[in-house]
């Protein structure tokens, strides 16, 4: 296939919808509402049972920055090993040093842990890339580490704003690293960015908000994020994925 349409999902329902809409692979995470964290292994196993698409698994132990403690790193190493051993097509990782460089040594250890379990396990560098000090230096480090894919918005709040850097990254990456465009991706954005950036890989959640089926609602008691209703649930919209897939099919297949 000439293109990639990766759906970011954090539930079985979203995975099913994304596959029905025509996604080519999943990035599986937990807690998408906070940018994603490492998914529960039982969620991973259930998605494997229900769906046939390749699963790329996010490894992120918590919300926040990408400078991790020794305990957090130990956990990440164990997670990488487990998911690689249990059928993940790729692990999605990223670590930075205090001065904003890609943490080469820690990344190398995580990659080694994954490929010790499965030599064919692919590696995606996630959006830690978007907050690193020097994207071009990070790209070269990623190449040297054997990273297969970099998920990026072009170091901007959205991929539309990051289009100039994305274009340069695609050019510099060539055939060595896949530049996977994310942040604000939908069918219209894909249509606009394809001829500009030269990219062929896009990452989206295609989310819609469902109203809770709770009939009794105690308002004003937030359980995590003030300002976000506890009675709204994010799910992938199969139609949004299908619209994006149609744009890609038309552009690459005709």
TrEMBL record:
<dbReference type="GO" id="GO:0005507">
    <property type="term" value="F:copper ion binding"/>
</dbReference>
<comment type="similarity">
    <text>Belongs to the CutC family.</text>
</comment>
<dbReference type="GO" id="GO:0005737">
    <property type="term" value="C:cytoplasm"/>
</dbReference>
<keyword id="KW-0963">Cytoplasm</keyword>
<protein>
    <recommendedName>
        <fullName>PF03932 family protein CutC</fullName>
    </recommendedName>
</protein>
<dbReference type="Pfam" id="PF03932">
    <property type="entry name" value="CutC"/>
</dbReference>
<dbReference type="InterPro" id="IPR036822">
    <property type="entry name" value="CutC-like_dom_sf"/>
</dbReference>
<dbReference type="InterPro" id="IPR005627">
    <property type="entry name" value="CutC-like"/>
</dbReference>
């Amino acid at each position: 296939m000439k293109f990639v349409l990766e759906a970011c999902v954090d539930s079985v329902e979203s995975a099913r919808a994304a596959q029905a809409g025509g996604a080519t692979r999943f990035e599986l995470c937990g807690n998408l509402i906070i940018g994603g964290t490492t998914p529960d292994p039982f969620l991973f196993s259930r998605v494997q049972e229900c769906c046939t698409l390749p699963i790329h698994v996010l490894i992120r132990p918590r919300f926040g920055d990408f400078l991790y403690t020794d305990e957090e790193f130990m956990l990440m190493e164990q997670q990488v090993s487990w998911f690689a051993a249990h059928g993940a097509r790729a692990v999605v990782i990223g670590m930075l040093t205090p001065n904003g460089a890609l943490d080469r040594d820690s990344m190398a250890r995580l990659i080694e842990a994954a490929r010790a379990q499965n030599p064919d396990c692919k590696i995606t560098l996630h959006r830690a890339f978007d907050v690193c000090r020097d994207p071009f230096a990070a790209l070269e480090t990623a190449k040297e580490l054997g990273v297969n894919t970099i998920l990026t918005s072009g170091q901007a709040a959205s991929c539309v704003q990051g289009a100039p850097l994305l274009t340069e990254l695609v050019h510099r990456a060539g055939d060595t690293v896949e530049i996977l465009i994310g942040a604000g991706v939908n069918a219209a954005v894909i249509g606009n960015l394809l001829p500009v950036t030269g990219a062929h890989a896009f990452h989206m959640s295609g989310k819609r908000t469902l109203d809770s089926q709770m009939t009794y609602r105690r308002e004003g008691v937030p359980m995590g994020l003030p300002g976000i209703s506890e009675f709204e649930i994010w799910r992938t919209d199969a139609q949004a994925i299908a619209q994006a897939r149609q744009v890609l099919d038309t552009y690459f297949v005709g």
